[in-house]
Every structure is written in structure tokens, then in C-alpha cells.
Design brief:
Elements: E1 6-9, H1 12-20, E2 25-31, E3 34-40, H2 43-54, H3 61-94
Antiparallel strand pairs: 1-3, 2-3
Helix pairs in contact: 1-3
């Protein structure tokens, strides 16, 4: 069985609309300093992307903004994980045990 195709969205407003319209977020990927939102490809997803890009979207503003805020939180969490990993690696390099030399022989 083949792996489902994925669609990478880097526009947070577009990703928020897809969540608002019922699509499921498969995962997030940190690409350098940007986060990509990954959705499983389907005909309904492509239709929703077309609607969003055409500018004919009608949405409940408060619900739409709540999905936007959810995605912003995901971005901060992903970037926080990256910063924690960098700090951990820096500390590991800094506190490497040194070889012990015993000159008493």
C-alpha cells in the first residue's frame, strides 16, 4: 500500500483555514526558521485550497482566529524545541569529560 501524499503549507492563514474547514493537520516540520504545516492530500483539500486562494472564503472570524492562534502556539513550541536542542548540544560540548592523566608512575 502506497504512502499518502502530503501537502506542505507554509502560510499560517491558509493552514488555519484548512483546519477551520475540517481538514486534519498531519504534522508540523521545522524548515530552517520556518514551520511547514503538513496535511494529507485529497480532492477536498485541493478544493479548499482553491477556495482560499480565490478569496471567496466565508468564515466565522472568532473560530478562524482561534485556529490561527493554535497554529501560532505550535510554531512557538517547535521553535522552542529547536532552541532547547541547540542549548543541550552546546552544554554537552562545553562539559565534556577530559581524559585523566596520572603522572605518578
Amino acid at each position: 500500500m502506497g504512502k499518502a501524499k502530503e501537502v506542505f503549507i507554509t502560510n499560517i492563514w491558509q493552514a488555519a483555514y484548512l483546519l477551520y474547514s475540517g481538514e486534519n493537520l498531519a504534522k508540523t516540520i521545522l524548515e530552517g526558521t520556518r514551520v511547514a504545516f503538513v496535511f494529507n492530500d485529497s480532492a477536498s483539500l485541493q478544493k479548499k485550497i482553491s477556495v482560499f486562494l480565490s478569496g471567496t472564503v466565508e468564515a466565522n472570524v472568532s473560530k478562524y482566529i482561534s485556529f490561527y492562534q493554535y497554529l501560532k502556539n505550535l510554531i512557538y513550541m517547535e521553535k522552542g524545541k529547536l532552541e532547547n536542542e541547540k542549548a543541550k548540544r552546546k552544554n554537552e560540548r562545553r562539559f565534556r569529560p577530559r581524559a585523566v592523566c596520572d603522572d605518578r608512575e
